Amino acid sequence: MPQLARRLFVLPPDLEGAARNWLKLGEPTPRAANYASSIILLRDSPAGLETWMGYRAGSSPLGVVAFPGGSLQTSDDDAVGWLGPSPQHWAEWMGMSDVGLARRHIVGAIRELFEETGVLLAGRDLSSTVEATSTVEWMKIREAVAEQEKSFTDVLAKRGLKLRTDLLKPLVNWLSPDFAHRRFNTRYFAATVPVNQEPSILASKGVWGRWVSPAKLIEERDTTALGDEVGQEETVGRTLGQLLVPGTEIMLEKMAAANGCIAYLSYKRTPHVYQPKLVEEDGALMLEVEAARTIAGEPQRER
Fold it and tell me: Distance from CA of residue 167 to its chain's centroid?
């Protein structure tokens, strides 16, 4: 595992009230963390590696701007066609002893990606994937699955589709800070876009979502360019660190340093749980993370 270093990140404005209340109450028992999955969608472009990010309304534990993802559901335990590595193999790769939970993370990750972007990692066999998922019909299905009016697993079964779990790559495990009111224990995965599919925002809930250049975001991290583009009350005038959770910012750094999709996906990762901790630096509350540094010469404190 890479040598870890102390990293400091700005405390997102949405978390400041919870942080101060946590300290005022003497650091009580943390609230239980919900299990969540998130998929980093990748593609190569003439300008370099790109990833899909979207705006999340409200105070999401994944950040105001984040990769596709969300909470696991009980329906993620339902029977579903499965292609690729077995749940047992996934549990081993993710460093988990609970095979059922590992399976739920995989199903939940693919479901959330479909709901939020329309990208569907499924096919009839290991040599095929669904095509043209940007139609009006597929959008209606996405809406129904997002509202839990239709079961994701039923949608797949009725079309003779099975999950292509071989298209996923396990990344890292991030746990929300202890003081947060809403906490996630999130497993991150990565995938490239299947042939003849293109992500899009959900018609009823989507506000902003697009392919972004991690290198450009990191280069402009001290500016408010991204927040101003998203154009929402809680994004305008905010820098990158005020829009993202530390885990997302660190993953963007690693993507910015990678030479394309293959290089990023082939990097050997060791299972490890990362969690930001609340600290006070020079009178200001900040988030501290023990994580590997990615960009040589970058200052310790993230603004």
Answer: 16
